[in-house]
Design goal:
With about 350 residues, the protein is mainly beta. The chain has a single domain, classed as Pectate Lyase C-like (3 Solenoid), CATH 2.160.20. The chain has four helices and 31 strands. β1 (about 60), α3 (about 70-75) and β2 (about 85-90) form a beta-alpha-beta unit. The longest helix is centred in the first third of the chain and has 28 residues, at about 25-55. Mean pLDDT is about 85; it is low at about 1-20, about 25-30, about 40-50 and about 330-343.
């Protein structure tokens, strides 16, 4: 009786039930863990992105991470275009990079960094540079797309140690701009390694191989040294209406002409070796002038029996050139003809 009275006295009608203890519930424990993980991720994201939002001069983009951390374009979006800015890139970046109106921007590749076309050929270039000055691209493999890099609209583009490969048209396309190259490789492009028009560029230690043609240059000024131009499916070097100087370089094994110069071009070729090309070693046409100074021009015309140095209908070389440089079909020099400085 006493027990019953005590029991009933502890339970009152409509009294609230004791709160349940869920501290050990697996569902709530998992929810808390997920929240903690989300907070940690957001903190890391904030710490990484703060430099971008603060217009920092130096950032690292790891393209092996998902966006926004893994996108060069996202980094560019939050930078001050006036610069100076440096982006160090890690991994494989599948994107079409757009640079417009920037100055003093440097993109540096960590070993193995790649930028490759993400548009399926819908965008013109993998890296597009317009109306920009002092843009430096260093150490990348740039592949796919129609063009690896297009530098246009009065830009200044500087390239060093890059490989441009596997494009549907051109490795680098320079239009109405200035450029410098140092130690870059252009290979396996379906068009030209370098295409340039109405531009100026200097280039040292280039390799142009296994493209449709090594270069196609019009209305431009070019100074090059220590090039290797080999095994291209058409001309090794084609220039038209261009001032072109090539020093201490090797041009060999190209299916058409080693060097093809037309349309009022003016060439200086000190100490070059041009050999083993399918047509002429050097073809001089269309009121073009060429000054040779040393070098070796032999063993060309492998396919068609063309001369080592060939002249168009109206042009000629200096006397004695055949004995020094190889064979030639060029007659005695005429007024407004090709000019050759013998060794």
């Amino acid at each position: 009786m006493w027990t019953a009275v005590r029991f009933t006295s502890q339970i009152q009608p409509n009294a609230p039930l004791p709160a349940e203890d869920h501290s050990s519930s697996p569902i709530l424990t998992n929810t808390r863990d997920e929240r903690r993980t989300t907070v940690r991720r957001l903190t890391v994201l904030l710490l990484v992105c703060l430099p971008l939002f603060a217009n920092a001069a130096n950032v690292t983009v790891n393209c092996n991470l998902p966006a926004p951390l893994g996108k060069i374009n996202i980094a560019l979006k939050y930078m001050n275009p006036a610069g100076p800015n440096t982006i160090t890139v890690i991994g494989t970046c599948k994107e079409n990079v757009y640079i417009q109106g920037f100055d003093r921007l440097t993109l540096i590749a960590k070993p193995g960094a790649v930028i490759t076309d993400a548009s399926g050929g819908q965008q013109w270039a993998v890296v597009y540079i317009s109306d920009s000055r002092r843009i430096s691209i260093q150490g990348f493999t740039i592949s796919g797309g129609n063009v690896g890099v297009r530098c246009e609209n009065f830009s200044l583009c500087r390239f060093s140690g890059n490989t441009f490969t596997g494009t549907a048209q051109r490795g680098v396309d320079i239009n109405d701009s200035d450029a410098t190259f140092s130690g870059d490789i252009f290979q396996n492009n379906s068009g030209q390694g370098i295409f340039a028009q109405s531009s100026h560029f200097t280039a040292a230690y280039l390799t142009l191989q296994n493209n449709q043609s090594g270069t196609f240059i019009m209305w431009s000024t070019v100074i090059g040294n220590n090039w290797t131009v080999s095994n291209n499916a058409q001309d090794g070097i084609f220039v038209a209406a261009t001032n072109f100087q090539l020093i201490d370089s090797n041009v060999y094994g190209n299916a058409w002409n080693g060097i093809d110069a037309v349309d009022l071009s003016d060439l200086s070729l000190p100490n070059d070796t041009v050999t083993g090309n399918g047509y002429d070693g050097v073809y001089i046409g269309d009121t073009t002038k060429v000054a040779f100074n040393g070098g070796r021009y032999t063993g060309n015309g492998l396919v068609w029996g063309a001369p080592d140095i060939g002249c168009g209908e109206h042009y000629a070389l200096a006397d004695g050139i055949a004995g020094i440089y190889g064979n030639t079909n060029c007659p005695v020099p005429q007024v407004a003809a090709a000019q050759v400085k013998a060794k």
